[in-house]
Specification:
single chain, alpha/beta, Rossmann fold, 4-stranded parallel beta sheet, 12 helices, 9 strands, 42% helix
Length: 283
């Protein structure tokens, strides 16, 4: 750590890092904070986002991030951009955050959003950090209008049991944004049932015994087959897939807690309509 601090100080001394009077702006240390910064900040005020922000496989705002300076999460890189404020998720590289704070930099930390309210909270935090709290309130209002519309459409739909089946057989429990979205759609989340802790692996046998009405699977990228996602094509699930609506949601829509999760919910709602609401009612 001392050696890194010395190198950073040396960079300042020889001019490799610009002085604070030469630049100003916002830098982000994580993909999830990238997305919120891209949504709320003026482009000219964005000093740097992570390299993932411009990758279409990971980032739903890749087109918006094109051309912006990128970083890989190191303190030295961030200091080169000399931002006024750094936004990072709580699980950011601890040594980077510690170094930046020790050098007097303002770092705004975001807790992971494990609910829709958590998304609203982080929007407000980032809105304040980038100097546009009004944009955060606008984004929240727009998100809530769409959520209200989905809830209104779902109120007359019989409650159904849904299984979210992701890469390597993982599912999503509670509390989570996904669980909130499913509840809003009048769907009962298999992953939140007793005995299934949030984020656990859902064995094929458990899935078959539960016999859900709807199967929600996730996709990564446009053409990225892998052993991790092949589990969804398990032969034992063939009958289930044939008899139940199978709805695909791109992982990038809900991997991070942003208003983009509403699009995931809208895809599920549209899939239910396309599937004729097939499946038995769950009391």
């Amino acid at each position: 750590m001392r050696r890194r601090a010395f190198l950073v100080a040396l960079a300042f001394a020889v001019g490799l890092v610009p002085l604070a009077t030469q630049a100003a702006g916002i830098a982000s240390l994580n993909l999830c904070s990238d997305l919120l910064v891209l949504m709320l900040a003026d482009r000219n005020d964005i000093a740097s986002v992570t390299w993932l922000a411009a990758d279409p496989a990971d980032s739903p705002l890749a087109a918006q991030a094109q051309g912006l300076p990128v970083n890989h999460g190191s303190a030295e890189e961030i200091l080169m951009f000399d931002p006024e404020v750094i936004v990072a998720a709580r699980y950011a590289r601890g040594e980077t955050v510690a170094m930046l704070r020790r050098l007097g930099r303002r770092v705004v930390m975001l807790d992971p959003a494990d609910s829709l309210e958590g998304i609203r909270r982080n929007l407000r935090i980032v809105g304040e950090a980038v100097g546009h709290p009004e944009r955060a309130e606008t984004a929240i209002a727009a998100m809530d209008r769409r959520l209200d519309a989905l809830a209104g459409q779902a109120k007359d739909r019989p409650p159904l049991l849904v299984a979210v089946y992701m890469a390597r057989g993982f599912t999503v429990g509670a509390p989570s944004v996904v669980n909130d979205l499913l509840g809003l759609l009048n769907l009962r989340n298999l992953g939140a049932e007793p005995g299934l802790a949030g984020g656990t692996v859902l064995p094929v046998e458990t899935l078959l015994i539960a016999d859900p009405d709807v199967l929600v699977v996730t996709s990564y990228g446009t053409d990225a087959p892998s052993l991790a996602t092949a589990v969804v094509d398990h032969p034992a699930l063939e009958k289930l897939r044939a008899e139940r609506p199978v709805i695909t949601v791109p992982t990038q829509l809900w991997d991070c807690g942003t208003p983009l999760v509403v699009e995931a919910a809208e895809r599920i709602a549209a899939g239910l309509e396309a599937g004729g609401q097939a499946g038995r009612s769950v009391e």
